[in-house]
């Protein structure tokens, strides 16, 4: 017997922290799945529907994790720096020292 499941998940996440700023993320995700299942005493119709719903929920959860949270993390990490200006200055000075040391070593 053919089963059809259409599920929609609506997501809204917000952060209003003074240390990291404000972030608002929202969206919806809709997925449809069709599956042919046989109905029997050991696998009644309601059990087949339950498995279909659980499969869809797992797929939507995985997609939300990959698309919304993964991409948002990549974007936020690209825009924001977790290093202070002093740490960046120290790192830049170290990099310059290493470059100069390598240049001196190559000249010898």
TrEMBL record:
<feature type="region of interest" description="Disordered">
    <location>
        <begin position="22"/>
        <end position="43"/>
    </location>
</feature>
<dbReference type="GO" id="GO:0051490">
    <property type="term" value="P:negative regulation of filopodium assembly"/>
</dbReference>
<keyword id="KW-0009">Actin-binding</keyword>
<comment type="function">
    <text>F-actin-capping proteins bind in a Ca(2+)-independent manner to the fast growing ends of actin filaments (barbed end) thereby blocking the exchange of subunits at these ends. Unlike other capping proteins (such as gelsolin and severin), these proteins do not sever actin filaments.</text>
</comment>
<dbReference type="GO" id="GO:0051015">
    <property type="term" value="F:actin filament binding"/>
</dbReference>
<dbReference type="InterPro" id="IPR001698">
    <property type="entry name" value="CAPZB"/>
</dbReference>
<comment type="similarity">
    <text>Belongs to the F-actin-capping protein beta subunit family.</text>
</comment>
<keyword id="KW-0963">Cytoplasm</keyword>
<dbReference type="InterPro" id="IPR042276">
    <property type="entry name" value="CapZ_alpha/beta_2"/>
</dbReference>
<dbReference type="GO" id="GO:0051016">
    <property type="term" value="P:barbed-end actin filament capping"/>
</dbReference>
<comment type="subunit">
    <text>Heterodimer of an alpha and a beta subunit.</text>
</comment>
<dbReference type="InterPro" id="IPR037282">
    <property type="entry name" value="CapZ_alpha/beta"/>
</dbReference>
<feature type="compositionally biased region" description="Polar residues">
    <location>
        <begin position="22"/>
        <end position="31"/>
    </location>
</feature>
<keyword id="KW-0117">Actin capping</keyword>
<keyword id="KW-0206">Cytoskeleton</keyword>
<dbReference type="GO" id="GO:0008290">
    <property type="term" value="C:F-actin capping protein complex"/>
</dbReference>
<protein>
    <recommendedName>
        <fullName>F-actin-capping protein subunit beta</fullName>
    </recommendedName>
</protein>
<dbReference type="Pfam" id="PF01115">
    <property type="entry name" value="F_actin_cap_B"/>
</dbReference>
<dbReference type="GO" id="GO:0000902">
    <property type="term" value="P:cell morphogenesis"/>
</dbReference>
<dbReference type="GO" id="GO:0010591">
    <property type="term" value="P:regulation of lamellipodium assembly"/>
</dbReference>
